[in-house]
Design a protein that fits this description.
Structural class: alpha/beta
Radius of gyration: 23 Å
Helix content: 25-40%
CATH superfamily of the largest domain: Mur-like, catalytic domain
CATH architecture of the largest domain: 3-Layer(aba) Sandwich
Number of domains: 3
Strand content: 15-25%
Number of helices: 14
CATH class of the largest domain: Alpha Beta
Distance between the termini: 49 Å
């Protein structure tokens, strides 16, 4: 494969002509609002070793390789590259907690191995192959995060990544529009386990996810994890307010990561570290010290208020889990909740269900932001805010007194802007 041969001579792949490193291979990908074929000359002038293009006009000399589809070429190169790497590859998916588990898992495994993991949110049809092409002979294993919003996606990722191990963090009410309901979510996420089990690999999942357990009843290469000792792997993590504490050998060790909903994320990462022969004394320190800084479970001080910023994304399951964890805090509590996307025909009911749930909680104020809440029936402690500037004004006012404020919503809401 000519494109792959050029990749092997390069210093790596890039899809952004603005950030070309010396001797990188530029892939001229297309999207709804961009066409990489228009930036080939810029990439070459900035030091790219060559370019993969799919338009004749972009062939600017011998260093350009013309293919039918740059995206397909990327995926085929990644598949070929993975086939040459004889290392464990851990596929990771789930409705909630994927990125948190990935960060925890990378840190715990790194105490013994050289680990490559998905960067940021590169967990889609472009990000997965780009991640695979970052694997080198220096890596002992790789963690590939797999996001999806419809059936068949994870199946294709598995064909490229060939995971030897798989972990599903949970099955929740996310991307209901694309999956067509909770059963569709289950089938979509299980595509990871279908692949791993077909090659007799090892799978990991929460003990209390009975939906996952049923089809695996006769499969032996599996490990369940959880807080309860009935799981194959468990850890005694308790909560005091929203602080997570490990009780071990008469010691109480606090995690920097907070929120009861993160307990299983920690245990899942520890479970896999244990599976790969890492002792607790080595994998626990990085788990205890992990403190997120990516708009996920961040704890910040704003004037007199403690702000729990969990604004990277939201779906019905993660929204409820975050709120329940937040409610363990003492004192005055305020909720700022953004609309949830990709719910399709389920959207109206899911947003009203969230509003109803919040009405049962002892909060002094609940603010709902976004058009999806516009048809919901609110009570006297709840307020619909349609304007971001108005939401910012209310937030700034509420931070002038001691209280706790949870901020959570879908990515499109950009609720982290409230702290600017």
């Amino acid at each position: 494969m000519k494109a792959y041969e050029l990749f092997l001579k390069s210093s790596g792949i890039t899809i952004d002509s603005r950030q070309i490193g010396k001797d990188q291979l530029f892939l001229a990908l297309k999207g709804p609002n961009f066409n990489g074929n228009s930036y080939v000359e810029e990439a070459l002038n900035k030091g790219a070793i060559g370019a993969i293009v799919d338009e004749k006009r972009a062939v600017l000399g011998e260093r350009c390789i013309l293919v039918d589809s740059v995206l397909q070429c990327l995926q085929e190169m990644a598949t070929l590259h993975r086939s040459k790497m004889n290392i464990p590859v851990i596929g990771l998916t789930g409705s909630n907690g994927k990125t948190t588990v990935k960060e925890l898992l990378q840190r715990s495994l790194a105490s013994k191995f050289s680990v490559l993991a998905t960067q940021g949110n590169f967990n889609n049809h472009i990000g997965v192959p780009l991640t695979l092409l970052r694997i080198t002979t220096k890596h002992d294993m790789a963690i590939i995060e797999m996001g999806a919003n419809h059936q068949g996606e994870i199946k294709s990722y598995c064909q490229w990544a060939q995971p030897t191990h798989g972990i599903i963090t949970n099955i929740g009410r996310a991307h209901l529009e694309g999956f067509g309901g909770i059963e569709g979510v289950f089938k979509g996420k299980m595509e990871l386990f279908d692949f791993v089990c077909s090659s007799e690999g090892h799978v990991f999942y929460p003990y209390d996810e009975q939906r996952i357990d049923a089809p695996l009843s006769n499969y032996t290469q599996k490990t369940t994890f959880g807080l309860d000792t009935v799981a194959n792997f468990s850890m005694p993590i308790r909560t005091q307010n929203d602080v997570l504490t490990l009780w071990q050998k008469n010691q109480m060790l606090d995690f920097q990561l907070k929120g009861a909903f993160n307990r299983n994320n920690i245990v899942g990462a520890a479970c896999i570290a244990d599976h790969f022969g890492i002792m607790a004394e080595n994998y626990l320190p990085p788990l205890l010290s992990y403190n997120p800084s990516n708009n996920r479970s961040q704890y910040l001080q704003k004037n007199q208020a403690t702000v729990v910023l969990d604004a990277y994304n939201a779906n019905p399951s993660s929204m409820r889990a975050s709120i329940e964890g937040f409610m363990a805090r003492s004192g005055d509590k305020i909720l700022i909740l953004g609309e949830m996307k990709e719910l399709g025909t389920f959207s109206k009911d899911e947003h009203q269900r969230l509003v109803n749930f919040v009405q049962s909680l002892p909060v002094s104020l609940a603010l709902f932001y976004g058009q999806e809440f516009s048809t919901c029936e609110l009570d006297v402690t709840q307020q619909l805010v349609k304007d971001k500037n108005e939401l910012h004004r209310i937030f700034a006012d509420k931070t002038q007194k001691e209280c706790s404020i949870l901020i959570k919503g879908s990515r499109s809401c950009r609720l982290e802007q409230l702290l600017d």
